[in-house]
Design brief:
Length: 197
């Protein structure tokens, strides 16, 4: 038991010495370091020589190099959509097959169907249809694509049951602003019955 008391007293003594050394109170003080000399910069002459511009001859580059910075956007992926050749007909079946297709229609036709195959379409794509009559725009419709990715489409123009105006008709189909198909047909002047004499 006395051995433990001696050991405890010895441990306490060592602990006190250790604390005293850590707090800077010990038997020997560490000598202070002499101050470090600081250098002073010599005064710079006020008249420093200045650089003058040197002319450089620039020649055009045949193919300029384009470097994208971190803030530039990547180019859009190539358009995957395809619109096939347009077939015009005054009627179509429920299976989107043209009835009496052609390029010339009589003056009493009230509507013309434009049927075409398509593929690679996406609901993200905007598609636009532009109708022209004798080089003048008469209708324009723009929508997001709402159909399947591929298939056959039946798009038509009508005149509310009245005959379509005669002339040269053109349908332009754009996807994402790019013209993918173009078709034309003619509505002939109506035949007028001659007055009998």
């Amino acid at each position: 038991m006395q051995t433990w008391k001696k050991l405890n007293k010895g441990m306490i003594g060592l602990l006190l010495i250790f604390i005293a050394l850590l707090s800077g109170c010990g038997p020997a003080q560490i000598a202070e370091q002499p101050p470090v000399p600081t250098a002073t910069l010599p005064e710079v002459a006020s008249a420093l020589p200045t650089a003058s511009p040197t002319p450089v001859e620039v020649s055009p580059v045949a193919d300029p190099v384009v470097v994208n910075s971190a803030g530039d956007t990547l180019p859009a992926p190539p358009l995957a959509a395809h619109i096939g050749q347009i077939t015009f007909a005054p009627e179509s079946t429920k299976q989107y097959e043209p009835i009496n297709p052609g390029l010339f229609f009589t003056g009493d036709v009230t509507e013309v169907h434009a049927l075409f195959d398509y593929s690679g379409m996406s609901p993200r794509y905007t598609w636009e249809r532009v109708w022209r009559l004798n080089d003048r725009e008469v209708a324009r419709k723009t929508d997001l694509w709402a159909g399947p990715e591929s298939g056959v489409f039946d798009y038509f123009i009508d005149n509310s049951g009245r005959p379509l105006p005669p002339g040269d008709w053109v349908l332009e189909i754009y996807v994402e602003g790019k013209l993918l198909s173009l078709g034309a047909f003619v509505v002939e002047e109506p035949v007028r019955a001659e007055a009998s004499q």
